[in-house]
Design goal:
Number of helices: 0
Low-confidence stretches: none
Oligomer: single chain
Order of helices and strands: EEEEEEEEEEEE
Radius of gyration: 15 Å
Number of strands: 12
Strand content: over 45%
Largest sheet: 6 strands, mixed
Mean pLDDT: 92
Helix content: under 10%
Shape: globular
Distance between the termini: 43 Å
Structural class: mainly beta
Length: 139
């Protein structure tokens, strides 16, 4: 069961993210970022970020990133970003944050991952369909 808390006037839920490296190469590090924002109130809130180092290829890291999110609130959407650096020195990132919202039916557990064949960042939820976005190579 998820834990509900308050921060000022904001009510939020803790979420727990796994990270999967299916890039085809070990990673030097990854930066994961999550925030909540709306279309009408575009203020970014409940911002969390996590850096993870030395991630072997095909690693599945459990509960490595804790996020804060709002459940069942009008005009509240989850936005996700990722930046990765491979052991060979290549850098990829999301061009802009990916809107992919945890639904009321989903648990608080989320899987974040990267696919090296498709060069994508993906998000999977317990019930609803997840999302993915093409990663851009940084020169």
């Amino acid at each position: 069961m998820s834990k509900n808390e308050s921060w000022g006037n904001e009510k939020f839920v803790y979420g727990y993210c796994d990270f999967e490296n299916y890039w085809g190469e070990d990673l030097s590090h990854v930066v994961l970022t999550h925030c909540v924002s709306g279309y009408f109130d575009i203020t970014k809130k409940l911002l969390t970020s996590k850096e993870i180092y030395d991630i072997p290829n095909k690693a599945e890291l459990k509960k490595v990133f804790t996020i804060l999110f709002e459940r069942n609130k009008i005009d509240s959407y989850d936005f996700w970003s990722l930046k990765l650096v491979t052991k060979s020195g290549e850098v990829y990132e999301t061009k802009e944050p990916l809107r992919c919202t945890i639904s009321i039916d989903d648990s608080e557990f989320v899987i974040l991952g990267i696919n090296g064949d498709a060069k994508t960042f993906y998000i999977a939820f317990s019930v609803m369909i997840g999302c993915n976005v093409k990663l851009e190579k940084v020169d």
